[in-house]
Amino acid sequence: MTPRHAREYRTALKAALAAGWRVLRNGGASLDAVCAAVAALEDDPLFNAGRGAALNAAGGAELDASVMDGATLGAGAVAAIRRVKNPVLLARAVMEHTPHVLLTGAAALRFARAQDHAVMPAAYFRTLKSEIALERFRRRASASDADRHGTVGAVALDGEGNVAAATSTGGYTGKMTGRVGDSAIIGAGTYADNATCAVSCTGHGETFMRVVVAHDIAARMRYGRTTLAHAVQAALQTVARLGQTGGVIAVDAAGALTLAFNSEGMYRGYVCSGRAPAVAIY
């Protein structure tokens, strides 16, 4: 992480915050805000989602994303999809325009075209950063920790008291073709319920699925009557006991915010009424 790279990441985080905040500032819904923020990150090649997605073992980008509306418990997700510019927007379309929660692969791509979502050539998803990471993987036949992690997400609370969450990722460098991580799984990488909180996760996807981190946080609040911060820390301790790292961003129905991680750092930021936007890396 050079000073120049740090400035680039901070600028991109601020742009994503601004995209979501414009929605909320104008009286928009939390679901619209999280989709706007995540779409901005998907469009930025710095991040492992959308354009900057990690490449799988075959050299392709397969994308996962999900959204959840805390007001209705409506949810939508897509997994192992190719060439869709903004998977988070397609996940929302699954929620709003189908009777399903999750669509995968070629069927999801057909749905994207039917819904007039932007579909890009495969070369759009091949950045210099992702190609270098894939070459490292192929030389070592394993992914480094730096290449394994990478997810973008957003959570929001709007003026009506509704929470929402959205998550998007390219997975990790060198993953098997067809692998699906927690970002596409409601309850594992994404969860939202007005009665508790909205959660978006990043980290070792297989572990986050095994312990359903996002829903575990909400359940600890609902049944254990604990605070958001305590629930998040307890969930991350479970991840750590399994020898893995990751992070969580979450907001509860009262506006309490938690951005926690047990790794060296996590790109993160927040903005709320009466306070200047804040971004951080470590």
Describe this structure in words.
With 282 residues, this protein is α+β, with helices and mostly antiparallel strands. It has one domain (3-280): Glutamine Phosphoribosylpyrophosphate, subunit 1, domain 1. The protein is 38% helix and 23% strand. It has helices at residues 3-25, 30-42, 87-97, 105-114, 128-140, 145-148, 205-210, 213-224, 228-241; strands spanning 63-69, 74-81, 102-104, 152-157, 163-169, 190-192, 197-203, 246-252, 257-261, 268-272, 275-280. Helix 1 runs antiparallel to helix 2 (30-42), helix 2 packs antiparallel against helix 3 and helix 8 (213-224) packs across helix 9. The N and C termini lie close together (11 Å). The mean pLDDT is 95.
What structural class do helix, strand and pairing data support?
Answer: alpha+beta
Level-2 CATH architecture? 4-Layer Sandwich
CATH homologous group name: (Glycosyl)asparaginase
What proportion of the residues form beta strands (DSSP E)?
A: 15-25%
Globally, the shape reads globular
Count of individual domains: 1
Major sheet strand order? 3-2-1-5-4
Specify Rg, calculated over alpha carbons: 17 Å
CATH third-tier fold name: Glutamine Phosphoribosylpyrophosphate, subunit 1, domain 1
Approximate helicity band: 25-40%
In the predicted model, the low-confidence regions spanning at least 5 consecutive residues are none
Number of helices: 9
Mean pLDDT reading: 95
CATH C-level: Alpha Beta
Quick rundown:
With 282 residues, this protein is α+β, with helices and mostly antiparallel strands. The protein contains 9 helices and 11 strands. The strands form 3 sheets. It has a 5-stranded mixed sheet.
